[in-house]
Each structure stands twice: as C-alpha cells, then as structure tokens.
Amino acid sequence: MAKDAYPPTLQELIRRLSRLPGLGEKSAGRIAMHLLRASDEEAFALADAVRRVKERIHTCPKCFHFTDGDVCSICRDPARATGELCVVETTADLLAIEDSGAYRGRYHVLQGALAPIDGVGPRDLRIEELLKRIEAEGIREVIIATNPSSEGEATAHYLMKLLEKRPVKLSRIAFGIPMGGDLKYTDKVTLEKALSGRRQVN
What we know:
It contains eight helices and six strands, in the order αααββαβαβαβαβα. By secondary structure, it is an alpha/beta fold. The chain has two domains: 6-56, RecR Domain 1 (Helicase, Ruva Protein, domain 3, Orthogonal Bundle), CATH 1.10.8.420; 80-195, 3-Layer(aba) Sandwich (Dna Topoisomerase Vi A Subunit, Chain: A, domain 2). The protein starts with 7 loop residues before the first helix and ends in a 6-residue tail after the last helix. Keywords: DNA damage, DNA recombination, DNA repair, Metal-binding, Zinc, Zinc-finger. Pfam families: RecR_C, RecR_HhH, RecR_ZnF, Toprim_4.
C-alpha cells in the first residue's frame, strides 16, 4: 500500500485498524475507506458503540463472563439454575458452547489456564471463586471444559484433584474426530483423546 498517498489522519486510522485480530493492512485500508465514505451518522454511531463498550462492559462478579449489568444474562436466568456448572478458560469458549445450543446450565470463566512457564498459577485464575460458588449455589455437577492443550489439560487435572473429595459429580468434555474429518489427517493427540473417550455401543 502506498502510504504516502494517504493523508496522515487516514494513515493513523488504517494503522490502528490493522492491529485488530484478523485484519491486515489491506483489509484495514478497505474499512478505513468505507468509513470515510459512510455518512457522519453511521461513522459516529460506530465510534460511540466502541466508546460505550469500553465504558460499560465489565466482568460478571459471579461467573466472570462479560456483562453491562450487575450480573450477566446467564447468571440472571432462573432456568439456568440446573445444578450444573461448566468451567471454561475464556469468554470465547463460553460463547462457542452457547452457539452449539448443547448446554443450558451456568458457567464459570477461569480467565485463563495454568501455565507455569509463563508464571500463571492457581492464584491467577478464578479457582477460589469457583470453590465458593459450588458450595453457595448447591452445584451437583462440575463440567470441566478447558481446551485440549497442555495448559488446558494441566488445568483440568488440577481442578479434578481439587474437587475429587467434594460432593459433586465431576465430568470432562470429550474430544475426538470432528464431523467430516479424515482419520489420516487427524493429529496424534486428537486420536488419543478419541480412543480414550470411546463408549460402548452394544
């Protein structure tokens, strides 16, 4: 992109847009040109939406998902009080499970995973709050839905050891071959998980 052809103000917008995930300099340039051609109302509404997100969005004090209220919509919903608590690493993981429509209980967002090499230990995650919720909310089952990475597995193992003597059912989400996947292209870890998580069919 010929940067000198753009006025400095437009260059600055493109530079900032290109720092967003998934946006390269060309895509950022196209978005900047779209905003330049957009009506004042449309452009200012977008800027105002970004400002409101930064001012109003915070973590839910119960589950640590994002919210703009006292607690998030999932924690507010009485139909979600199923006695099940799904533990995830991040809000992005929560949203992925929600999009599947396969789970209708409540969540607990750890806000990360154990990573000793990076200096992330149990005290850096929302584990203490998890223990308090299990008791306070009468949780009957804890579903550990951390990612199948080394950090996610370490976190799952730590939580299972921590909770094994508590009066709750513990479960770990299964991992395996994706629908439409091909065994010969599946990585070793996924195949191992698929085999160890096999179930009887007769």
